[in-house]
Amino acid sequence: MQKTSYQKELLIKATQQRKGLNNNKKDIEKIQSWLNLFAIQNPNAGTATGIDGDFGPATEKAVLNFQKFNGLSQTGTVDQKVFDALTAPLKKAFEDPVPGNNLRELILSTAKNHLKNHPFELVINNQSNTGPWVRSYMDGHEGSDWFWCMGFVQAIIDQAAAVQGKNFKTLMPLTYSCDTVGVTGIQKKILTRYQAARTNPALIKPGDVFLIQKTTNDWFHTGIVTAVNGDLIETIEGNTNSDGSHNGNAVMNRIRNYKQSKIDFFSIESLVA
Fold it and tell me: Which domains does the chain have, with CATH numbers?
């Protein structure tokens, strides 16, 4: 795999605890981030707390609640074993084996595996597009300016291609820009424009990348096509929400009408071959 920043998100330097001599602000922020991510999926767990890098009484109580909720020893401290429990969704998303007889199937399985582990961004220090999931997709980058839909797409393709010993960068350059991938598709003659896709839906295949046009050579959102049904495509996409925003907060399975939107399609066929 080329995109391995997620590995840093799975580790802390030392046990973190209230008034701990080895406390590290970045590690505490990681812990607080995961406590909040856990609270999003388990709102009755009592693990939501501030993300400020200070292991105070509120963070200690949130840790105790996490440990109680998961049947762990209630110590109020976070060693690597407890942190492993906190970060289990990320590890599962990036490291669980996925089924597939070919690259397209592997891409779909990988995207679905990430989806079921609930990737979600956080707001830290008044900055959206932050947190461990965003950093994992964006090679350590985060913050309001770092839209992460393409980072998600490339992480999925990279992970799936690596199963077959392939390098996704032979298909497209490492980038966070929809425009860069769109232009690459034009140059390689593997970008199906929306007009052609509307006329011939057979040109759209599961595993391909959709790109929503702003103007002819300007795209602002992307994701993975998982199915084509009549006028509709099903997708898995990052940095979106229920309204289909290009700057939402989660990975979601969405349905889009490609005949009513200017959606171009980047083919992964050359990497499949």
Answer: 5-86 (1.10.101.10), 102-272 (3.90.1720)
* Whole-angstrom distance, CA of residue 81 vs CA of residue 234: 38
Structure tokens at 111: 């995207």
Cβ–Cβ < 8 Å for 27, 16 = yes
Cβ–Cβ < 8 Å for 222, 180: no
- State the Rg of the chain over Cα: 20
- Full pLDDT tens readout for the chain, 273 residues: 999 999 999 999 999 999 999 999 999 999 999 999 999 999 999 999 999 999 999 999 999 999 999 999 999 999 999 999 999 999 999 999 999 999 999 999 999 999 999 999 999 999 999 999 999 999 999 999 999 999 999 999 999 999 999 999 999 999 999 999 999 999 999 999 999 999 999 999 999 999 999 999 999 999 999 999 999 999 999 999 989 999 999 999 999 999 999 999 999 999 998
Structure tokens at 92: 């599962």
Rounded to whole angstroms, the Cα distance separating 72 from 92 reads 20
Sign of torsion, CA 126 128 132 135? negative
